[in-house]
Specification:
It contains 20 helices and 16 strands. It has 506 residues and is of the alpha/beta class. It folds into 3 domains: 7-185, 3-Layer(aba) Sandwich (Rossmann fold), CATH 3.40.50; 193-290, N-(1-d-carboxylethyl)-l-norvaline Dehydrogenase, domain 2, CATH 1.10.1040; 307-410, 3-Layer(aba) Sandwich (Rossmann fold). Strand 4, helix 4 (96-109) and strand 5 form a beta-alpha-beta unit. Helix 8 (196-207) packs antiparallel against helix 16. Bound molecules: nicotinamide-adenine-dinucleotide.
Length: 506
């Protein structure tokens, strides 16, 4: 197989440039690494060679391959050395003027056929290309850190980029062992755009006092299968990186309410509580380990009250089977007896609204989140109304913890935690499809590989039920009166018809 680009120049020998140079050489290209700091390019080459030596020691690379790789990789002093490259990838500092200047210089050095690409993560590819003579030969090539391990790259089409250039870059990404996804030049491209929902909605839940950080992390890991909770993730990324990204995407979309950042991260950033790297973020770190507060034990009850389950509960047959299996006495009357625990399971509505609208006794009403299949989750989440009696809340907690499954009791909020966060993620992803920023398939690939979600956001929406997702958002919009929960037309149409969120019109 011939490699798509025989000679590749990489400008910027920092974390990203080194990674890109490494995988380009591994794909079979001759690679020249350039940096404007004296000695930096050679240090970059040495670091890459050290990586290959490590792989050889682990038996993952044989000596002949290692020697061939080393022979293909060289440091150069200046961009003039890149004159015979057929691809140049830029990974210098994230600054529009510096990148523009660099590409003007590169255009004067390389032949007209050379493809020029930027690894920018937040600047507009179109804006970088604005002064170029050949903007059709220019594209975004957005890798993730660390490049050899994060196996996805976003190929970004600027306003004038030729499709054939994007196709060639995508084919080359595959030769480098990566999956390529195509995206329009829009703020955050795919991954940083689709990733807005998780942290921002979790921060909003904290800001409302619905649950603390650790509880939200536990719920989203145990109920929705995320590898890291949103606050663990914010601590890992560090707030000096993630807060500016949240602000930038919000502003670039002209204050789109779905991306509204939180004052919580602004304040923590100002205080220097950046995350794992400063030893204090949402969690404290001792010897690198997060100090996670213990969960309160489930209350013990000798005799539980009878349970009446609302006829309008989500997954009602499943909820009835669960309550029965947990050994509760179930009331079957049209209305609850005077001492029954009243169970509701709304989608999007808060428990208070349900109790008020259904004329239930709010002092005995408790809600459970039944969005996900109980058998597929490791945690149940309950909430009462502000009037719910402690004995009723604790009875519900004791009942649902009877089989040893973890239970979180949170404050009343439209959509509990999982419904809110998943519906927000699914809605943002749906709107990206509606805007044709990328194909649904590329969106799923980019989010799984770039963000490490258990599945793509559209598949997650399908798992929860597109109609349920729509119901959650409609009802949350009613509860909060906030345009951030306005369902995207993509979700609205598919949800209304019960179609898969990946369904595309003929
Ligand atoms: P870095 O600071 O580690 O490296 C940048 C390198 O570029 C430095 O060695 C610097 O000396 C060199 N440089 C600066 N100006 C130069 C110029 N005019 N000519 C030649 N070399 C120059 O930065 P990084 O983390 O590797 O990021 C590089 C680019 O990749 C940025 O645009 C960034 O937004 C993007 N990016 C970073 C990440 C990440 O997680 N670090 C992820 C995706 C994209």
């Amino acid at each position: 197989m011939t490699v798509n680009f025989c000679k590749v120049g990489v400008v910027g020998a920092g974390a990203m440039g080194r990674g890109i140079a490494q995988i380009a050489a591994q794909a079979g290209s001759d690679v020249l690494l350039v940096d404007n700091q004296a000695g930096a390019a050679q240090r970059g080459v040495d670091a890459i060679v050290a990586q290959w030596t490590k792989l050889q020691e682990k038996g993952k690379l044989d000596a002949a391959t290692q020697a061939a790789l080393v022979a293909r990789l060289h440091a150069a002093d200046a961009v003039q050395a890149l004159a015979d490259c057929d691809l140049v990838v830029e990974a210098v500092i994230e600054n529009l003027e510096i990148k523009r200047k660099l590409f003007l210089e590169l255009e004067s050095v390389v032949p007209a056929s050379t493809v020029l690409a930027t690894n920018t993560s937040s600047l507009s590819v179109t804006a970088i290309a604005a002064g170029l003579k050949r903007p059709e030969q220019f594209a975004g090539y957005h890798f993730f850190n660390p490049v050899p391990l994060m196996k996805v790259v976003e190929v970004v089409a600027g306003f004038k980029t030729e499709r054939s250039v994007c196709d060639r870059l995508a084919a080359y990404a595959v030769q480098m062992g990566h999956s390529a996804v195509h995206t329009q030049d829009t703020p955050g491209f795919i991954v940083n755009h689709a990733g807005r929902g998780y942290g921002t909605e979790a921060l909003r839940i904290v800001s409302e006092g619905v649950a603390d950080f650790a509880t939200i992390d536990r719920i989203l890991k145990d109920q929705a299968g995320f590898r890291l909770g949103p606050f663990e993730l914010l601590d890992l990324t560090a707030l000096d990186v993630s807060h500016p990204v949240m602000e930038s995407i919000y502003r670039q979309y002209y204050d789109e309410p779905r991306f509204r950042p939180s004052v919580i991260t602004a304040q923590r950033l100002a205080a220097g509580a950046l995350g794992r790297k400063t030893g204090e973020g949402f969690y404290r770190y001792v010897d690198g380990a997060a100090q996670v507060p213990a969960e309160p034990p489930a209350p013990q009850f000798e005799t539980l009250p009878p349970v009446w389950v609302s006829p309008r509960a989500a997954r009602r047959p499943e909820l009835l089977r669960l309550v029965h299996a947990l050994g509760a006495r179930i009331e079957t009357g049209a209305s609850p007896s005077s001492n029954a625990l009243i169970l509701v399971a709304p989608l999007g509505f808060d428990i208070t609204t349900v109790a008020a609208v259904d004329r239930l006794d709010a002092t005995r009403t408790v809600g459970i989140d039944m969005l996900m299949d109980d058998a597929a989750t490791k945690r149940r989440v309950l909430a009462g109304t502000p009037a719910t009696r402690r004995d009723m809340r604790e009875a519900a907690h004791a009942l649902f913890a009877r089989d040893g499954k973890a239970v979180s009791v949170i404050r009343d909020s439209g959509g509990f935690v999982t419904q809110r966060v998943i519906a927000t993620i699914v809605n943002i992803a749906s709107d990206m499809c509606q805007q044709r920023i990328c194909s649904p398939a590329d969106l799923e690939t980019a989010v799984r590989l770039g963000l490490g979600y258990p599945q793509g956001p559209l598949a997650l929406g399908d798992l929860c039920g597109p109609t349920n997702m729509l119901e959650v958002l409609f009802n949350m919009q009613t509860v909060y009166g906030d345009p951030r929960y306005r369902p995207s037309p993509w979700l609205r149409r598919r949800g209304a018809l019960g179609l898969s969120l990946t369904h595309q019109e003929d």
